[in-house]
Write a structure and sequence with these properties.
Blueprint (H helix, E strand, L loop, with lengths): L1 H16 L1 H9 L5 H17 L1 H10 L4 H14 L4 H10 L4 H18 L1 H8 L5 H16 L3 H9 L5 H15 L4
């Protein structure tokens, strides 16, 4: 509605001045579509304008689907920006779903293709071993398409079991062989 758009625009504007105040206002709106729209708009704006402060706010949120959705938005926006500030933020998060979600989304947003060595290093800290293996495979597959040996070298540094490394080495080698 027009009212929702006006509230969302006002909150986005306030977020440039005082993100914490804008966050508090949006979260104190009555539950419902207007609140959801306002928070989504705030997260989208703050992810671009002030990702580090938004990251600190999200880290204080209760765990759950809303937090993970907002972390996904933040990480995607951050992937086009400052790697150092993202790394500082994500490295201070406790291990768990929020941190894993941030790492996966950040790398899925293109960082893995541009910097596979950094992607593998980040993916090594994912708590869930199956998710870690999948994400490392994604990063290394992009590299293996152009430089199989570099991908295999990075694989040896991956935080995977020997069986996972062997299996992934076979997948990468087969995928990079012409005709497969």
């Amino acid at each position: 509605t027009a009212k929702d758009q006006a509230v969302t625009a006002a909150i986005a504007t306030e977020s440039k001045v005082d993100l914490a105040d804008a966050w508090s206002f949006a979260n104190n709106l009555p539950d419902g579509p207007s609140r959801t729209t306002a928070i989504n708009g705030l997260v989208a704006a703050a992810a671009k304008d002030n990702p580090a402060q938004l990251g600190a706010i999200l880290a204080e949120m209760p765990s759950g689907p809303d937090q993970l959705k907002d972390v996904t938005t933040l990480s995607e926006a951050w992937s086009n920006g400052d790697d150092a500030s993202f790394n500082a933020w994500v490295n201070q998060l406790p291990k768990g779903d929020m941190r894993d979600t941030a790492l996966v989304q950040y790398n899925a947003s293109g960082v893995a293709g541009r910097h596979p060595d950094q992607a593998v290093k980040r993916m090594n800290s994912i708590t869930n071993s199956d998710l870690r293996a999948t994400q490392i495979q994604i990063a290394l597959s992009k590299l293996a398409a152009t430089n199989l040996q570099s991908a295999l070298d990075l694989l040896q540094k991956a935080n995977l079991t020997d069986d996972q490394k062997s299996s992934l080495a076979n997948v990468l080698t087969k995928a990079s062989t012409p005709g497969n």
